[in-house]
Amino acid sequence: MAGHCCSSDTHASQAVDPRFRRALWIALWVNLGMFLLEFAASLTSGSVALLADAVDFFADSANYMLSLYVLSMGLLWRGRAALVKGVTMVVFGVAVLGKAFWSLTSGATPEAMTMGMVGALAMVANIAVALLLYAHRTGDANMRSVWLCSRNDALGNLAVMLAAVGVFGTGTAWPDLIVAAIMGGLAIHSGLAVVGHARSDIAEARACTS
């Protein structure tokens, strides 16, 4: 019988750890607030790396909202939600790489001080969120995608700060563009990992209902 090889939450709602739900809500509001701040800062500073991080904050906010929506659903729907998030991460990465390439032709140098200050503030916020979600990093594809988002954000903020130092030291836009390209590549790599895990969860759920 299929039921002998499947956990009960494969095709039914599961009990949700209230700590994880609360962590998701905190992560959602932190990411929305940082998106607004970084987007404004990217426009005033001309930094592609800050813009990439701001868009990442917005994508993560949508991902956290989606995670909250499917949190109590069965494995199939949680796997489908993770699949959407994984594809979104890949698309974001490709878009950032495209933006960095396009910016090569402009020749404008971003404002390093704004990059550094906003990057530092964003890093503090994301480290706090990452620590909050760390205990839930080994769950299903949906939970893993949430952890990867928070981890990538913290790494991205550190990279933005390093880019600010590089821009200040060299007086060129190259450090900003290099960091933006690295952030895009990291988003693609993590997105593909989430997609792979999500497809595994979906296959497991379908096998248990067949």
UniProtKB/TrEMBL annotation:
Q: What is its main location?
A: membrane
Q: Does the keyword Membrane apply?
A: yes
Q: Which UniProt keywords apply?
A: Membrane, Transmembrane, Transmembrane helix, Transport
Q: Where is the Cation efflux protein transmembrane domain?
A: 24-72, 81-195
The record's subcellular locations are: Membrane
Q: Write out the transmembrane intervals.
A: 23-41, 61-77, 82-102, 114-134, 154-171, 177-196
Name of this chain's protein: Cation transporter
Q: Which organism is it from?
A: Marinobacter xestospongiae
